[in-house]
Write a structure and sequence with these properties.
There is one protein chain. The protein has four helices and no strands. The protein is mostly helical and 97 residues long. Helix 2 runs antiparallel to helix 4.
């Protein structure tokens, strides 16, 4: 860590309290950025899931009547729910780096 090396060698010729305050500020800034990135990830995931849900629902609602005659409604709901669960839960965990 560059700052700790500077502190150890006292290159800036400051007091120990000054170095400690700067080090704590860097640590707090890192924590704040980590929390902010998590919030951005959550909001982006929710937005993507909502958009995908709307598009899937639109495509199902535009299907022909013969599709609904041949396919039981339980199968449609089960598949729709399963796909949405994968989008909302599994995909964000897999994509997170």
């Amino acid at each position: 860590d560059l700052f700790l090396a500077t502190w150890q060698d006292d290159l800036l010729q400051q007091s120990q309290e000054w170095y400690l305050c700067i080090w704590l500020a860097i640590g707090c800034l890192g924590c704040a950025l980590n929390i902010a990135s998590r919030f951005v990830w959550v909001f982006a995931s929710v937005h993507a899931a909502d958009r995908i849900h709307s598009e899937m629902l639109g495509k199902v609602l535009r299907c022909t009547t013969s599709f609904f005659d041949k396919t039981p409604s339980g199968r449609i709901m089960s598949r729709f729910g399963e796909d949405q669960m994968l989008v909302e839960f599994a995909a964000p965990l897999q994509l997170e780096v």
